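User: Could you write out the 3D structure of this protein bound to pyridoxal-5'-phosphate? I've included everything you need below.
Assistant: Certainly. Input first, then the structure.
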Amino acid sequence: MTNSLQTVQINLPPDFIDLGRGDPALSLLPLDLLRRGAEVRFAEGDPSFLQYGTEQGDGRFRLALADFLSRGYGLDVRPENLFITNGISNGLDLICTLFTQSGDTIFVEEPSYFLALRIFTDHHLHVVSIDTDENGLIPASLRDHLAESRPKFLYLIPTFQNPTGHTLTQERRDELIQLAREYDFMILADEVYHFLKYTQKPPKPFAAYADDKNVISLGSFSKILAPGLRLGWVQAHPETLKLLVNCGLLDSGGGLNPFTSATVRGAIESGGLDQNIDKLVDVYRERVAFMDSCLRKYLPEFVYSIPRGGYFFWARLPNQLDAAELQKRAEPFRVGLRPGVRFSSRGELRDYIRLCFVFYESEQIEDGVRRLKQCIESSK
Ligand SMILES: Cc1ncc(COP(=O)(O)O)c(C=O)c1O
């Protein structure tokens, strides 16, 4: 439901607890940090960041971002390998526009991020899903599919995946890179949750292979700073980036988000971004533990593994309960969830749900889980 004065995308009545929503809490969005970042730029008296921007993205911002990523990834990230986007969604859309044609085959994980699937649908791509397990995408399953068709690209979320929370092992990462070279397809690695690690240090990101023409790593400030910034990046081989930089969209509009880039540069250079991530990790680690304790207390029949990073619990319902049905029945109990089928390209995973532990504080998390229990019990 929208009203004409609405600002945020999801605007629910205050008595409704939507455990499905994957947004950061308003109280964790860093107003002061970004205000200070903008103030530094305005105080400099150079209005260049209000001009149409250079197509690849502001050079000084890319330098600051490269420095942040080099430290965070433990790699040597260079500014010439970075291209600034309006966020990962925009990066994916632009890559589809420039690298694919309607009817092309692409591969995704089963399950995958449901809103990326929507972008692929907008581009009329033929989506084939590859099996995964608790260690991420299964290379043998990929090989089977490669024997039948060649994708334009493989889209995957290698670390703290959405919706499963699973992380692809280093061994499998190496194997996928080998397969991409051998069969000549592109890997689009969506690394949006890489920095949100609570109890596991993830393997090297795919950004480590971005000198390879077969790999594109996508990153975003949405989960480590604020989604309203609409700011992200693509890290890839300079020849791949050339195709992005030379597109009509940028020829007309200039580089993406120069104003926001200038502000966020302030937040990076002051050390505020690192502090913000440390704070989010501390808060989210506690929320994982708390949601886990609530699930064990109220819904012990749910089967899941405790997320080690990212945003989500991915739980299997008992007795093959249909999660889409449960979602409908949960509405009068004023609680929401995301049914697994929305993440499946095969119309499967009907007895799974995705719950997010990030948006709500303890009291509402407990209330939400309790309401879900009441809903399930009411229909027994
Ligand atoms: C896996 C994944 N990719 C991309 C996004 C969206 O990223 P952005 O806000 O940078 O477009 C999300 C947001 O939930 C996500 O979970």
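The longest strand covers residues 126-133.
User: Perfect, thank you.
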